[in-house]
């Protein structure tokens, strides 16, 4: 079934995207490769939300595994009719796609909030750890001259903007792929069930 091949293709893409999300989220915990900021609890609140590890990562790995394994599913065969079983399996993949939509949606929302809120850093003006860009509502992203306000961690604004942007894009692609699989799963399921009824 071409619907099954399409689902497996989506599954492999989701697998790669989920692993990239996990890596990107782990990197957020270690600005400039340093571990001391995590151990000293000097990370932003949106960094610690696990949106790339849990949302765009593990919750997307579930549908990825389901989609990749679809070629083995015959869903009991429905009285010996293979197409009915494949149709049933395709319809069940829709539920897995919803899990992926929840995970990727969570990743998108937290990434957007992280970009809008800005990093948690030590500033030379306040001489304290604060969120210096919260009032800008994301406007700081285009005011590069203000990025130097953050003294520690070094280059934290660039680090956060890059990784949150990557997670936002990865989450968006995951969301789109899971949505495509919902349509693919419904069409494949109905097609398989219809074919089996015609054989009866």
Question: How are the SSEs ordered, and which strands pair?
Answer:
Blueprint: H1 2-28, H2 36-39, H3 51-68, H4 82-117, E1 121-123, E2 128-130, E3 150-152, H5 156-199
Antiparallel strand pairs: 1-2, 1-3
Helix pairs in contact: 1-3, 1-5, 3-4, 3-5, 4-5
Protein name: Transmembrane 4 L6 family member 1
Pfam family, one: L6_membrane
Family: Belongs to the L6 tetraspanin family.
Question: Would you write up a description of this structure?
Answer:
The two termini are 19 Å apart. The radius of gyration is 22 Å and the shape is elongated. Strands 2-1-3 form a three-stranded antiparallel β-sheet, with no helix packed on it. By secondary structure, the protein is mainly alpha-helical. It has one domain. It has helices spanning 2-28, 36-39, 51-68, 82-117, 156-199, and strands spanning 121-123, 128-130, 150-152. Keywords: Membrane, Transmembrane, Transmembrane helix. InterPro entries: L6_membrane (IPR008661). It is a multi-pass membrane protein. Pfam families: L6_membrane.
